[in-house]
Amino acid sequence: MAVEKVILAKPRGFCAGVEMAVETVERALQRHGAPIYVFHEIVHNVHVVREFSNRGVRFVQSVDEVPQGAKLVFSAHGISPQIWQQARAKRLELIIDATCPLVEKVHREVRKFAATGYWIILVGHEAHDEIVGTSGEAPDRIRVVANVDEARNVNVPDPNKVVALTQTTLSVDDTREIIQTLKEKFPKLVTAAKEDICYATQNRQDAVKQLSQKVDLVLVIGSRNSENSNQLRKVASGQGTPAYLIDDHHAIDPDWLVGVKRIGITSGASVPERLVQEAVDYFKQNGAEVSHIGFVEENIHFALPSEVGIVP
Fold first, then answer.
1. Cα–Cα distance for residue pair 135/121, rounded to 1 Å
2. What is the pLDDT of residues 119-174, one digit of tens each?
3. Is the peptide bond before 35 cis (omega within 30 degrees of 0)?
4. Which is deepest, 110, 125, 143, 173, by most CB within 10 Å?
């Protein structure tokens, strides 16, 4: 293997919403013991989910799977009012909402615009946990579009009263193109006062663009069901640099490295930093030097839910 240099993107890895959600489950385990039930994966990372599962966390796809009297955590991706109602009706001992505040912001926007008679076009992937939860706020008034073609063909009953909102983890560039298409179709289209794509998604995509221009190959550490990780791979490829999405360093194919001197590594917003360091060690043991690229310092932190927050 002839890799001479590894360049790490900065920022990478855990965002504030993921830190809050993971810490919420950690503290729930510490305070209450297993089992703790989590509605959907707490974050979309196979390692995080596996480690919590080994400690007695049970990830469920339906509230029906949660027994009465149990303790339930809602994942970072947010849930619909219907799921809230089902959980309350279950007479659970404890319900903790670990929804990312930036996802909750989009939920509030949906409620506000729906209440004032707007039709809502939600840019995102229909089956994604975040979109499922957000759509549940106003299912009769929402249309989901995932790409430019769908944006061209979407229709609403009143084209003069339309708002476009977005999933928080999308590609900034792709979303911009979709929103522009919607503006051409609906000249009176309203958009959110502050764009819905979260700061961490934006920062990581900006960093991987820089990274891609400095290396021969980009490795994005993240799980296949992680939207923001997939978008990082897509952004890197869009710069003309080969890029692969891997769960960890064990998935590196030596054939990818033939003729490669400089490798870039980044990670999705739900990826523990130790997975990045293990990948770095994989190359360091063969003599590669390590450096960093990127200038954004993230110092955003979200408060933990009151049920697991610090007791004064």
1. 10
2. 999 999 999 999 999 999 999 999 999 999 999 999 999 999 999 999 999 988 88
3. yes
4. 110
Domain assignment present for residue 89? The answer is: yes
Q: Which of 100, 123, 155 is the last residue of a domain?
A: 100
Out of 19, 41, 109, 130, the active site residue is 130
Ramachandran category for residue 13: left, alpha or beta (phi over 0 → left; psi -120 to 50 → alpha): left
Q: For this structure, is 4 an active site residue?
A: no
- For the chain, the domain total comes to 3
Are residues 88 and 119 both part of a single domain? no
**217 and 168 in one domain?**
no
- 91 and 25 part of one domain: yes
Burial class of 76 by CB neighbour count within 10 A (0 to 12, 13 to 18, 19+): buried
Yes or no: say if 15 and 207 are a contact pair by the CB < 8 Å rule: no
The parent domain of residue 35 ranges over 16-100
The candidate with the shortest Cα–Cα distance to 25, out of 56, 60, 66, 63, is: 56
Tokens for 142, please give them: 């929402």
Report yes or no on 305 lying in a domain: no
